[in-house]
Specification:
Layout: H1 3-23, E1 44-45, E2 49-51, E3 55-57, H2 58-61, E4 62-63, E5 72-75, E6 82-86, H3 87-96, E7 109-114, E8 116-120, H4 121-131, E9 139-143, E10 148-152, E11 159-167, E12 172-179, E13 189-204, E14 219-225, E15 244-245, E16 260-261, E17 264-266, E18 271-278, E19 281-289, E20 293-294, E21 298-303, E22 309-316, E23 319-322
Parallel strand pairs: 2-7, 18-23
Antiparallel strand pairs: 1-4, 3-5, 6-7, 8-10, 9-13, 11-12, 12-13, 13-14, 15-16, 17-20, 18-19, 19-21, 21-22, 22-23
Length: 332
């Protein structure tokens, strides 16, 4: 506030108070009876204020503005921002609209905040992925910086993309975006980033430990960047059903074939029944497993009598089979 205004305000307050002091003196009081017009009731300045729309009204600033509460006195700040009104502006505005306000201090002021709907970076990136030209059937936009766009309360959050510069070989782009409900005079927002291809893959819906068997309800899907999918990645959820983790696995992460295995039914050093079955021939022998194996796995087994080592297919707990011809000597 300027010094001339402070001086004028001080003098004004003195003039307002002077008749009161004069009337308090019985000697100097005017003996003539008068019926003065009662002054307008005093109003009070709000501690702070918020608005949704594009205009600020007297009632946004003062309590008790009465019939003048809806008088438009200023343009609201941009959505998501605020504006400070000082004592000089407030005093002159109150007088201009017939509102009786006496500043309690030369420091009196109020800050008006304009409410807004916020478009976060994630939503902006999703809209850009839908609107930018691309031949990728499944894609995501990764922005170089975090953005928060403020939209008027109740306004559209749809964006318009302008001046797109896209390099297909790298997926890099830059563009100007404008929110549909923005002030047409508002400057567009410059954004840049990269369009990346995505792939939908099966993932675990929960963390799992070795020994647990993966069921269909333990599987969901998630989208990952193509360059995050490693060679040998599991693409079909049927490859997971009935398997068990080789090591602790986290949820919602891409999986490789060597992350899981069939549940172990024969453990290393287990005694097993070795079966050789051919048309017209059925032989058995006792063996010892040299490694773990699940149903259908081929493991090494030692014949406990001949001490020969053979490869056998795990059939069930405690049972393996020889299916390759010409190795009956393993029984001898």
């Amino acid at each position: 506030m300027t010094k001339p205004f402070a001086l004028a305000l001080t003098l004004g307050l003195a003039l307002v108070l002077a008749p009161v002091a004069h009337a308090a003196n019985p000697v100097a009081a005017n003996p003539v009876a008068v019926n003065p017009v009662p002054p307008a009731p005093l109003v009070s300045l709000k501690a702070n204020g918020t608005v949704d729309g594009a205009a600020i009204r007297l009632g946004d600033l003062f309590d008790g503005a009465g019939a003048h509460a809806d008088d438009v006195v200023a343009k609201a700040p941009a959505p998501g921002t605020s504006m400070l009104f000082d004592v000089g502006w407030l005093y002159s505005t109150a007088r201009a609209h017939g509102v009786n306000w006496l500043p309690p201090s030369t420091e009196s002021a109020i800050r008006i905040q304009r409410n807004a709907t916020v478009i976060e970076t994630t939503e902006l990136a999703q809209q850009l992925a839908d609107k930018l030209p691309s031949t990728l059937p499944l894609r995501r936009v990764e922005l170089d910086a975090q953005f928060r766009l403020y939209v008027p309360v109740g306004g559209s959050t749809d964006i318009t993309v302008q001046k797109v510069d896209l390099k297909p070989e790298t997926g890099r782009f830059s563009a100007e975006v404008r929110v549909a409900s923005d002030d047409p005079d508002a400057a567009p927002v410059h954004v840049s980033g990269r369009i990346v291809g995505l792939m939908t893959v099966p993932v675990l819906a929960r963390p799992m430990m070795p020994g647990e068997v993966v069921r269909a309800e333990d599987i969901t899907t998630a989208d990952f960047r193509v360059d995050q999918i490693q060679a040998g990645g599991i693409m079909d959820p049927r490859e997971l059903v009935g398997e068990t983790p080789r090591h602790p696995l986290r949820a919602a992460q891409p999986l490789r074939a060597n992350d899981v295995q069939v549940p172990v039914v024969v453990k290393r050093n287990d005694l097993v029944l070795i079966v050789l079955e051919k048309p017209g021939l059925y032989l058995t022998a006792e063996g010892r497993a040299l490694e773990d194996g699940g149903k259908g796995n081929v493991i090494r087994v030692t014949n406990t009598q001949s001490k020969r080592t053979i490869d056998a297919v795990v059939l069930a707990p405690g049972q393996v089979a020889i299916r390759a011809p010409g190795i009956q000597q393993a029984y001898n």
